[in-house]
Write a structure and sequence with these properties.
single chain; eight-stranded mixed β-sheet; globular; about 35% strand; about 350 residues; alpha+beta; binds flavin-adenine dinucleotide
Length: about 350
């Protein structure tokens, strides 16, 4: 697709945050260009938990039925079991929503769906293979992006630039926004194991001495997270794949008949868990959202949904200033209200989950 010479809003990155913001602004008639450094959305596992809050959004946009017609699995219960026989069940059955489940759908299908829908609006442009390499700045204000594609380097002037380029965002570094970093004391190995059709559709957490395993239902396979103390990945690998398989079976004995499908360590991907957040999300002409503003722990599968909430808040606050050609710092500052929205929604979600303790002993 031909790149426009300038735009009203340039968005760096087409993950959940950039795709939804691009959709919402284009729907409001704002010229928007989303720049994505990859040609497609196919990535390693990036999480695929579409929570009720996001399904509600799609419903408000009139897209929920079509979205839920795409292949996905529904989970309305999370079950946590210990090797000692304790069990905790978390149910979404009382979530105040018509969607009382989490829809598990590969992130690339979600992004293809949203960008296809956004493409119906003439003011939406998605530039693939376009890597943002810096910001255009004049008099201390951000005035667009510099990017690189197969034809070379280019400039795209914009009234507003949004950094939705994820946890290693180049735009927030270029905007020199202050960041605090914390590191939860865990890392995660991700891998797949076959799933039988007759197995219960749920999210399972398994806890044993020094071990935590989370199993996510992906129809024909389990996406498994093996959580371990930070920095111990090399030690676990050094003990060998057989010892690793035994650890898995120790907390999830029903997987004994399929752990052999892990052939070598290439089947096991390391996620170094990092949590950070900007203490200010904006500077004149620039706003960071999603993981670029706050990389989250994978616990709870919230990252995609919170990134989308940021995009919704930004669109609600900014579409009018963008349409008048004036985006004041004060409007950008109001977008940090996303933080409040997030915590209110999260509290509401937690309050409406029924905790059902039981013991098998
Ligand atoms: C292994 C793993 C498992 C996870 N599991 C879950 C889960 O189960 N549930 C959940 O909700 N969240 C999960 N997350 C977190 C979730 O993926 C993120 O919180 C979410 O994707 C953030 O969305 P985003 O749009 O802000 O950023 P991202 O999804 O990171 O998207 C950023 C986009 O910007 C592009 N980009 C980056 N740099 C540039 C550049 N310079 N120029 C142009 N484009 C660029 C990237 O290619 C990418 O497409 C997981 C994360 C990981 C790593």
């Amino acid at each position: 697709m031909a790149a426009p010479a300038s735009t009203t809003c340039a968005i760096a990155g087409c993950g959940p945050a950039g795709a939804i913001l691009g959709f919402l602004l284009a729907r409001a008639g704002i010229d928007v260009v989303v720049l994505e450094k990859h040609n497609d959305f196919l990535r390693d596992f990036r999480g695929d938990t579409i929570h009720p809050s996001t399904l509600e959004l799609l419903d408000q946009l009139g897209l929920a039925d079509e979205f839920l017609a795409l292949p996905h699995s529904k989970v309305s219960a999370v079950r946590i079991e210990t090797t000692g026989g304790e069990a905790l069940r978390i149910s979404l059955e009382r979530v105040p929503s018509k969607f009382r489940f989490i829809a598990f759908m590969p992130q690339w299908d979600f992004l293809e769906f949203v960008t296809r829908k956004a493409g119906r609006f003439p003011s939406f442009t998605l530039l693939r293979n376009a890597e943002v390499i810096g910001l255009l700045e004049t008099g201390g204000a951000v005035r667009g992006v510099r990017y690189r594609d197969a034809a070379g380097e280019h400039e795209l002037p914009a009234l507003l630039t949004v950094g939705a380029d994820g946890r290693t965002a180049v735009t927030r570094d270029a905007a020199r926004l202050p960041r605090v970093e914390t590191s939860p004391p865990i890392d995660v190995f991700w891998f797949r194991l076959p799933r039988r059709a007759d197995e219960v559709a749920a999210v399972f957490g398994r806890i044993g001495p020094g071990l935590l395993l989370v199993m996510l239902d992906r129809n024909d396979y389990w996406q498994v997270a093996f959580v371990f103390p930070k920095g111990k990945g090399d030690e676990i690998r050094a003990r060998g794949l057989d010892a690793f398989r035994r650890d898995i079976v120790r907390v999830a004995p029903e997987l004994a008949d399929r752990v052999d499908s892990l052939h070598d360590w290439d089947d096991v991907k390391l996620l170094t868990v990092r949590v950070d957040r900007l203490t200010r999300w904006h500077t004149t002409g620039y706003l960071a959202i999603g993981d670029a503003a706050h990389a989250m722990s994978p616990v709870g599968g919230l990252g995609i949904n919170v990134a989308i909430q940021d995009a919704v808040t930004a669109a609600n606050v900014l579409w009018r200033p963008l349409s008048t050609g004036q985006v004041a710092d004060e409007a950008l500052a109001r977008c940090s209200a996303a933080v409040n929205v997030r915590f209110v929604c999260f509290r509401r979600f937690k309050a409406s989950c029924r905790l059902d303790f039981s013991s098998r002993r």
